[in-house]
Specification:
Mean pLDDT: 91
Radius of gyration: 12 Å
Order of helices and strands: HHHHH
Shape: globular
Strand content: under 5%
Structural class: mainly alpha
Largest sheet: none
Low-confidence stretches: none
Oligomer: single chain
Helix content: over 70%
């Protein structure tokens, strides 16, 4: 149920931004679910990550926080 709630919340760009800023480990947790071949929630995690990255500002936030070379979280 929590994953489906996150799908709905993350569908709105502003709510998605707030969600990521309040919970900075969310994207990393979603990626972990996606990369876990035994995860029952990989498809749902993909849907949430897709919603989170829908807007340009949120895409840049995700990239800069998780995939940039200037970042210590990668």
């Amino acid at each position: 149920d929590a994953f489906f709630t996150l799908i709905n919340i993350s569908a709105d760009e502003l709510d998605a931004s707030i969600l990521m800023r309040k919970n900075p480990v969310l994207v990393r947790a979603l990626i972990d679910y996606i990369l876990n071949e035994n995860s029952k929630f990989a498809d749902t995690a993909c849907a949430i990550l897709s919603n989170l990255s829908r807007g340009k500002a949120n895409s840049e936030l995700i990239f800069n926080n998780y995939f940039s070379d200037n970042n210590n979280n990668s």
